[in-house]
Amino acid sequence: MVRAGDRAVHGRLPLRRAPLPALSRGRRADRRRNRHQRRTAPTAGAGPVNLTIVLHQPQDRVNIGGVVRAMANMGLERLTLVDPAEFDPWRITGIAHRTEHIVERARVAETLEDALAEATYVVGTSARPRTAQRNYRRPRDLASHILRRAHDGNVAIVFGREDRGLSNEALDRCHEVIVIPTSPSHPSLNLAQAVLLVAYELFLAGAGAPAELPTGKRSLGPAPTAELEEMYGALEAGLASVDFFKARKPESVMRVLRTIFGRTTLDGHEARLVRAIGYEMRNRVERGGGAQDPPRSREAAPSD
Length: 304
Hints:
Elements: H1 25-40, E1 51-56, H2 61-73, E2 78-82, H3 89-95, H4 100-103, E3 107-109, H5 112-115, E4 121-126, E5 136-137, H6 139-152, E6 155-159, H7 168-171, E7 176-179, H8 191-205, H9 225-241, H10 250-262, H11 268-286
């Protein structure tokens, strides 16, 4: 029976899904609280809590999003925007995903004076040295000093607007000025790129950089000498089985191969693979299989 309020589709009633069980008000509040805590939790290996990235009059929210992403990558979490042309946290987190812990805590100041009021050490940035005499430094040379100062008080690193950087009046408020080395023919950097380069140097100067590069899951450590000698023996036997030494001295060839493999550190898996190649060459000859010609590519095959 079709009721008046039901709409039939091709003579059939639409399926009605059973309503999901309603959550209690307390459980809904707990879920919202947990989601907010996950979004705003500080990142692991966060940088100095007293170090703030200050953007002076940023003009584009895409650039702000790029800056936020760079900060998150390098463990920096304090951001101050001075008189931004636009600042929409929802849109910025849409550009830089999983950065709510930075965006939701970002401070907006009306003037640079307000933004730097509590800073005890201020570092400016410039694409090139200006005419005025200032304390110009490279980011790598200054990174360790910035981190030391951040342990003693509030440190601010100031970046200028995209189209013209920091004014001389703004640089006058800085104790030192970072100049990032670039090509003289194109010295200007994108705002987010400049922040990333400075933040990267801070990351390396601090404790955030891993001491060693990651190794593969199958890394077994360096192969012992006995295993390497077995590898060389199998390789020599395999080469001899295919008459590789017909016009060459085995000692000279094996000495060159030892030199080649000695330039790297073979692990156990790699040494066994090379050993298996030698065994397979010898076994194939002993089975009477001989050497197979490599298959020709489709392009080289003769046409019918």
